[in-house]
UniProtKB/TrEMBL annotation:
This is Molybdenum cofactor biosynthesis protein F. Residues 149-260 form the MoaF C-terminal domain. Coiled coil: none annotated. InterPro entries: Calycin (IPR012674), MoaF_C (IPR035348), MoaF_N (IPR024724). It comes from Colletotrichum karsti. Residues 14-122 form the Molybdenum cofactor biosynthesis protein F N-terminal domain. Pfam families: MoaF, MoaF_C.
Length: 275
């Protein structure tokens, strides 16, 4: 069991570890991959006017083909990992080397609903950054596309995520678009920041959480299950120190530390005339 060190001080960015060093061993608490999708094929209609076929050849290989829309006829294959984060709900992750894009697909095989998160790189001045776009979809012949909606349900929650026996982080969700993270133990002990994020509700106590980091060009996509108290996901980034792409899949055990409603408290205080 990891032992918390003495309370750290502020850590300047120049002393931050490389992303590869930080992520070493992050797969320790990742749930086992699933081969349940092997042999299945899904024809999805996307809200961006695309129709894409994903065929799971076996437990390791996915074949994709754009049937309609931009880049019609484009096709390719990749190695994938699928994780059944909730019964019949899968987090699927694969890399498209010809495009330098990491694709994370959350797929509900019962409803046919899906959301795809695609991350890649672009240059902003002398800095290389990571971008992520979101595409919502539904399986063909299952009706119109239903977009997973932003949620307020994480706001005010203070959650501890244990990624390894060594690495633990706390998250505080401030509003729909902002979270704060702080490393309590591990390689990044003492590091903290506040980031732009996106929170979508996938189901009861099940959420898609995305955040983009300000200092390091990291884009993270995870599924948070507050019923099973687990998280499963990946980050994809350009490490400016090693000058290379870094992709890590990771999982965690989660513990809810607290839940606050500061806006309600503020409203009550104002009604009492004390602020």
């Amino acid at each position: 069991m990891a032992v918390l060190s003495e309370t750290p001080d502020y850590v300047p960015v120049s002393d931050w570890p490389t992303l590869e060093d930080m992520a070493a061993g992050f797969g320790e608490h990742l749930m086992p991959a699933s081969s349940k999708l092997a042999g299945e094929a899904f024809n999805h209609v996307f809200d961006a006017g695309l129709r894409i076929l994903h065929r799971f050849v076996d437990g390791q290989t996915i074949h994709w083909e754009i049937l309609e829309g931009d880049q019609h006829g484009l096709t390719g294959s990749a190695e994938y990992k699928a994780f059944e984060v909730r019964e019949n709900v899968f987090f699927i992750d694969f890399y498209k080397p010809d495009f330098q894009e990491q694709v994370s697909l959350v797929l509900d095989t019962v409803t046919g609903q899906a959301v795809t998160c695609v991350s890649g790189f672009n240059n902003k001045g002398d800095e290389r950054r990571t971008w992520t776009k979101f595409l919502h979809a539904v399986e063909d012949q299952r009706g119109s596309v239903k977009v997973y909606q932003p949620t307020d349900e994480l706001i005010g929650k203070h959650i501890l995520y244990r990624y390894t026996s060594r690495d633990a982080y706390e998250h505080i969700y401030l509003n729909r678009g902002t979270l704060t993270w702080h490393c309590l133990s591990g390689t990044e002990n003492g590091l903290a920041d506040t980031e732009q994020c996106k929170m979508l509700k996938l189901g009861e106590n099940l959420y898609l959480l995305f955040w983009t980091e300000t200092i390091m060009p990291v884009e993270s996509v995870i599924v948070v299950d507050l019923e099973k108290m687990r998280s499963t996901g990946r980050f994809f980034c350009w490490d400016p120190k090693s000058q290379r792409a870094v992709h890590v899949r990771f999982g965690s055990y989660a513990t809810k530390l607290a839940e606050t409603t500061p806006s309600e408290v503020l409203a009550r205080v104002r009604m009492l005339g004390t602020a």
